[in-house]
Amino acid sequence: MTAAKLRALHVPGEPLLLPNIWDADTARVVEEAGFPVVATSSVAVAASLGFGDGEKAPVEEMFAAAARIAGAVSVPVTVDAESGYGLAPREFTDRLLATGAVGCNLEDTDHAVGTPRPVAEQAERLAAVRQAAGADLVINARIDVFLRKDDQRAVLPEGIERARAYLEAGADCVYPIGIRSADVLGEFVEAVRPAAVNGNRIDGADLASLGVARVSLGGGLWAAARGWLARYLKQL
């Protein structure tokens, strides 16, 4: 399936819901349930392969898993590609597109040091991926400055600055992961309007009314499935 179909599903106020999965079988379950897109979760895929999250899994295994997932379904697939696994933008893009995926998450955390890259450096990387991919890849640029922050409003200006830079570099959507306040998310969406924003679930918040275009469940389904299995095994 084409990137154009995936891109067209990003409509502010009518969010695309993505139940993130981790292998070909769970991808088929999502498609059979009627979802128009399959998305992966890096933490779940890595765990299914025996590795931790944060680019600890070999890139060859992560891309092989993505190829199996894309080959198992007929709907567009978008891959949580973490921070690009240290690959140069052209190599990253070529290898990702070779899996059959038409979209990806790219986060701005530098896993070598565990902190977000400078905004200009990340924007340059995103621009290079866009140039390499053309219109064949939907880029969801993840913004990590809200993670593990008690005062999220304090980093809102930086988050908005990063979002605008990433959109200018060619990202189709921006993902301020970890925002826990509907008010903060609403201000973020308003500041980058009419761009597509990927939100995460916030208790009691109507994300559609906030204007988000995409909602990711991240590792939630994997954690829930693993938790159910652990409880069932204890009962046995």
TrEMBL record:
SUPFAM superfamilies: Phosphoenolpyruvate/pyruvate domain (SSF51621). Transmembrane segments: none annotated. InterPro entries: ICL/PEPM (IPR039556), Pyrv/PenolPyrv_kinase-like_dom (IPR015813), Pyrv_kinase-like_dom_sf (IPR040442). Keywords: Lyase. One of its GO terms (molecular function) is lyase activity. Pfam families: PEP_mutase (PF13714). This is Isocitrate lyase/phosphoenolpyruvate mutase family protein. It comes from Amycolatopsis acididurans.
